[in-house]
From TrEMBL:
It comes from the Eukaryota. GO terms for biological process: cell differentiation. CDD domains: KAZAL_FS. This is Kazal-like domain-containing protein. Keywords: Disulfide bond, Protease inhibitor, Serine protease inhibitor, Signal. Residues 275-322 form the Kazal-like domain.
Length: 526
């Protein structure tokens, strides 16, 4: 059965004007593990048997984020349950997981109209046979007050302009946000509605435009709904309206404001409790409280308020103690080594004990007279301890040179900054790099690189800063050793050689390579 055959089946089976309303409402979700067969049926049992034989069942297929059309319908509806069936399309059927959200009620709920339509003829593919079946429908203007577990119903307009995008597997998909968060992902019942206007040139007749819709990524906050038709990709596609109802219980924490920075946590669908958030990030964005206590970041401050149940104001951003920083540089001879490490000492007496010290490095080839651009070098620190750390550098460039190199080509210095805490307006932290590649070998190594971010520059700490834009729109030239280089002039003249820290930033969202495929190394020349 082809995918277009399946969609023709959808048009006849899925069109449900959407609505609801009666206290006998029942709903749920069942899974359809799809094997090698595209048709799958399973038995659904109602939590409570209905008292009447006039039972109506509506079903919507929930897909597993692969944007493939699927058709669902019900058979053998009784007072105790029904049979639900699904036909899947597209590749990967043997590993596909579908589920069906269903809704059932009996009779005609107050304020609604219900009915059944019988289709006398059903065709699919190249085979035709007579098959009489019925279609249940229900219509309403408002949700009856007795349906407490149907808190949201709405309609979504999908314009479906242009060609269906490939990212949605050549269908149209749109995200829907709930008005309020649910306690658990709700069951979603949908119906696609299409208005045919014969006098409008691009309006498509229902007989020539079978439609199918399904849901994806149902969460407590919303879901995605997708639509496919049988029109050619470059042909006009009709606008449709998706009517939906969300069945479930709302989060009891909606509209709850807990005191003392506590967070509302639901215990059940009807009960909640206010709890302190005990897990905070490790980065340092210090805050000094009115009591003279330095908190690592805002989360730690709020946690202390929550646990003590006592409000304490903030005196100022930054630590209550002075920000401590040391800088310097150390020589590094890489003339005969591809990787070199050197132990560097600093004055530990200036730092607070029992608090971590952060170190940042930048490789600096300044002071050489050969005029050559060097190979890319990566730097990192190891064994940061009281009064000392190890600075390491590794050549990662192409190492392609014609002719002999000058004697001082391998000489370099490492500019370093050691600091403790975070300065006012600064943000300091250590991040865990979970994946690290070297050469052709992959190994998981935990490396905690230090980082530092500023919203504005603390002048007592640093003299100046600047951003240098590298468009890199052309191939790098041979004279720069296949690297991109730019000259930077300081804003003032310094009495001594300053320590310079640099860091490369890259935005992959603006026509750029993903970070996974675009390693960047930066360094300083003369």
């Amino acid at each position: 059965m082809s995918s277009s055959t399946i969609i023709r089946c959808v048009f006849l089976v899925i069109f449900i004007p959407l609505v609801f309303g009666q206290q006998s409402l029942q709903f749920g979700r069942e899974s359809f593990p799809i094997d090698s067969k595209t048709l799958k049926c399973t038995t659904f049992t109602f939590p409570k048997p209905f008292t009447s034989s006039d039972v109506h069942v509506h079903i919507t297929i929930h897909n597993a984020l692969i944007h493939e059309a699927a058709v669902g319908w019900v058979e053998e509806v009784t007072q105790t349950g029904f049979t639900g069936c699904v036909v899947a399309s597209g590749p990967g059927i043997s590993t596909r997981q579908l589920s069906a959200d269903w809704m059932a009620f009996e009779g005609s709920p107050p304020g609604t109209q219900t009915g059944r339509i019988q289709f006398p003829l059903f065709t699919t593919g190249t085979r035709c046979w007579l098959h009489r079946f019925t279609k249940d429908w229900v219509a309403m203007t408002t949700t009856p007050s007795g349906w407490n577990e149907a808190p949201e119903n709405n309609a979504l307009d999908m314009l479906n302009t242009g060609s269906p995008p490939a990212k949605f597997n050549y269908g149209f998909c749109q995200n829907v946000s709930f008005a309020e968060r649910f306690f658990k992902p709700p069951c979603i019942i949908t119906t696609v509605a299409h208005q045919y206007k014969p006098l409008v040139p691009l309006s498509i007749s229902p007989s020539e435009n079978a439609l199918t819709e399904w849901t994806e990524a149902v969460s407590r906050e919303g879901f995605s709904v997708c639509v496919k038709d049988i029109q050619a990709l470059d042909a006009p596609h009709t606008p449709v309206t998706i009517q939906f109802i969300a069945l479930g219980q709302l989060d009891p924490c909606n509209d709850v404001n807990c005191p003392f920075y506590a967070t509302c946590k639901p215990k059940s669908a009807t009960m909640y409790e206010c709890l302190c958030d005990l897990y905070c990030p490790t980065f340092e964005d210090n805050l000094c409280s009115a009591q003279g206590i330095t908190y690592n970041n805002e989360c730690e401050y709020k946690k202390a308020i929550c646990l003590s149940k006592k409000h304490v104001g903030i005196s100022h951003p930054g630590s209550c103690k002075p920000f401590i920083v040391q800088r310097g540089f150390a020589s590094l001879d890489m003339s005969s080594d591809e990787m070199k490490c050197s132990d560097i000492s600093y004055n530990a007496s200036n730092f607070y004990s029992l608090q971590p010290v952060h170190v940042l490095l930048t490789i600096n080839h300044g002071g050489q007279t050969n005029g050559l651009v060097h190979d890319a070098v990566n730097t990192w620190v190891e064994n940061v301890g009281e009064g000392a750390f190890t600075a390491c550098a590794m050549k990662s460039g192409r190492l392609e040179h014609e002719g002999p190199l000058p004697p001082d080509y391998g000489l370099a210095s490492v500019d370093w900054v050691a600091f403790q805490g975070s300065p006012r307006g600064g943000l300091v932290g250590v991040e865990l790099i979970e994946n690290w590649w070297e050469g052709t070998t992959c190994k998981l190594v935990a490396l905690p690189p230090s980082w530092l971010a500023f919203e504005y520059l603390p002048r007592k700490t640093f003299a100046e800063f600047e951003s240098v834009y590298f468009p890199n729109g052309k191939a790098p030239v041979d004279s720069n050793n296949h690297a991109f280089c730019q000259n930077v002039t300081f804003k003032v003249n310094y009495m001594k050689k300053p320590t310079v820290m640099i860091s490369a930033t890259h935005n992959s969202s603006v026509v750029g390579l993903l970070p996974d495929y675009n390693s960047i190394t930066s360094w300083i020349e003369v």
